[in-house]
Design brief:
The protein is 88% helix and 0% strand. By secondary structure, the chain is an all-alpha fold.
């Protein structure tokens, strides 16, 4: 047998490739692993995903700010990490719980009252873009202040958050109504429930780039 292996290197190569192929097919890729984590540990997975989205979004925001100011791109890492902490500890858990309630509402409407999918989506969007928006955005300013204070080991100054909220909240509301009703309608209508968080996170990279310039 050893002689045959030495005598037929091409066969050995094909055998090795076949074994490598079988091993790779048994190893889950990043996307498959992400879906598995959403099933096994959804809260932690969504929280970390949200933190990464905020991290990337603020780096994009600071790059744009540098280009507008015609200066070399430099990153305020305290700000970047503050957004990462804020989204990991607050935004991710908030959206996980909030969207779970919206999905439960949709299933209840369909199973109990026989509501059509389009009616369910419109009700979910209405609640999300009224109660959800009012609950989330004002508290986000305070959550960021707490995250920054935690990172810098200082006492949070909530008056700063309040002043920033009063100053920026109206423009944030206007911009979010230009973006998220359309995005969420697309997600609720066409994206399977398990993948909605992933698609929402992709859209949120660009939204967070805007939001970081308002909150920081």
């Amino acid at each position: 047998w050893r002689y045959e292996r030495l005598a037929h290197p091409a066969s050995n190569t094909m055998l090795q490739k076949s074994q490598d192929s079988n091993e790779s097919s048994q190893t889950p890729n990043m996307y498959t692993r992400y879906i598995q984590l959403l099933d096994t540990n959804p809260l932690l997975t969504k929280s970390i995903s949200s933190g990464i989205v905020a991290f990337l979004g603020d780096m994009l925001a600071q790059s744009i700010e540098s280009q507008k100011a015609h200066i070399p791109a430099t990153f305020n890492w305290t700000r970047v990490l503050s957004f990462f902490i804020c989204n990991t500890l607050y935004v991710g858990p908030f959206l996980h719980c909030w969207w779970e309630q919206l999905w439960k509402l949709g299933r209840w409407m369909q199973e109990t009252h026989g509501a059509r999918k389009r009616t369910t989506i419109l009700v979910q969007l209405l609640i999300d873009q009224t109660i959800g928006v009012i609950m989330f955005f004002p508290t986000y300013f305070f959550a960021y202040e707490m995250a920054e204070s935690l990172l810098l080991w200082k006492t949070p100054v909530l008056t700063n958050s309040w002043n920033k909220c009063v100053e920026q909240l109206q423009s944030v509301f206007i911009m979010q109504y230009k973006v998220w009703p359309v995005v969420n309608f697309f997600i609720f209508t066409f994206i399977p429930e398990k993948l909605r968080v992933l698609v929402g996170n992709i859209a949120a990279v660009f939204w967070n780039a805007y939001l970081c310039t308002r909150v920081a």
